[in-house]
């Protein structure tokens, strides 16, 4: 079961090299021997210089409603001694960064994205002490239900359907979901649908089509839920997206 691909496909981001003051992703170590990656997904300027910095980068998240960014803790430390594959990846990144070559920026963008996926994998494998998406995806039972919601947001899900996906009784599923994710399954599903709906509206999709796509009974019901979540109407979001395009 793939717990990351839908999130990566639906939500654009870019990892690019930047000056130290703009960085939120820093590779530490010595020349030829990267040791650690420090990532500050919630704020820049948190890193304190140690003198062992090898590469500074910034993750640009598209828009302000990216669940990948919101799911991560304030600080992520990735010890590269636990992952020789990631260490080798960073060696290639450093070579591309140090020696400019044709297509180098394109290569760095892609390699940076691969590095971000490896950071996310590591976070999911480790789990999280705080409730949220990472903790939910780290649980092998809950992750089946969460991935099902991610992959099929337009399905008319019930709590029982999701409990069945997780292989749990309804009561245990609801209890564990609230404990690990920090909200009810239906609340999470609602926010997921509305986040996807916002993306679609920004691309110019019609309100009635988006409402149907995400299992709302009517455009009016969708509009009420959308306004409550984002403090603006779907039409306003759509018009703003069209104007930018």
Automatic annotation (TrEMBL):
Entry keyword Transcription regulation? yes
Instruction: Give the organism, scientific name.
Output: Cognatishimia maritima
| Pfam families noted in UniProt | Cupin_6 (PF12852), HTH_18 (PF12833)
**Matching InterPro entries:** AraC_lig (IPR032783), AraC_XylS_family_regulators (IPR050204), Homeodomain-like_sf (IPR009057), HTH_AraC (IPR018060), HTH_AraC-typ_CS (IPR018062)
- Does Transcription show up as a keyword for this record? yes
Q: Which segments constitute the HTH araC/xylS-type domain?
A: 143-240
Q: Which UniProt keywords apply?
A: DNA-binding, Transcription, Transcription regulation
Q: Which GO terms describe its molecular function?
A: DNA-binding transcription factor activity; sequence-specific DNA binding
UniProt xrefs under SMART domains: HTH_ARAC (SM00342)
Entries under PROSITE patterns matching the protein: HTH_ARAC_FAMILY_1, HTH_ARAC_FAMILY_2
Q: Which domain of life is it from?
A: Bacteria
Q: Under what name is this protein listed?
A: Transcriptional regulator, AraC family
């Amino acid at each position: 079961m793939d717990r990351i691909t839908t999130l990566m496909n639906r939500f654009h981001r870019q990892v690019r090299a930047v000056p130290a003051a703009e960085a939120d992703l820093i590779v530490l170590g010595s020349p030829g021997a990267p040791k650690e990656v420090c990532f500050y997904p919630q704020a820049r300027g948190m890193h304190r210089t140690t003198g062992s910095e090898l590469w500074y980068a910034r993750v640009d998240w598209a828009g302000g409603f990216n669940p990948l960014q919101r799911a991560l803790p304030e600080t992520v430390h990735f010890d590269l001694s636990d992952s020789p594959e990631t260490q080798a990846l960073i060696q290639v990144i450093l070579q591309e960064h140090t020696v400019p070559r044709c297509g180098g920026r394109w290569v760095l963008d892609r390699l940076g994205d691969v590095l971000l996926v490896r950071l996310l994998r590591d976070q999911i494998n480790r789990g999280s002490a705080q409730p949220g998406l990472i903790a939910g995806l780290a649980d092998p039972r809950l992750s089946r239900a969460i991935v099902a919601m991610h992959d099929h947001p337009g399905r008319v899900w019930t709590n029982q359907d999701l409990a069945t996906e997780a292989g749990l009784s309804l009561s245990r599923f609801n209890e564990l979901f609230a404990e690990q994710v920090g909200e009810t399954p239906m609340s999470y599903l609602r926010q997921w649908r509305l986040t996807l709906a916002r993306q679609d509206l920004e691309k110019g999709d019609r309100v009635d089509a988006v409402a149907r796509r995400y299992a709302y009974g009517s455009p009016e019901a969708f509009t009420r839920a959308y306004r409550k979540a984002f403090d603006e109407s779907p039409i306003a979001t759509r018009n703003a997206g069209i104007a930018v395009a």
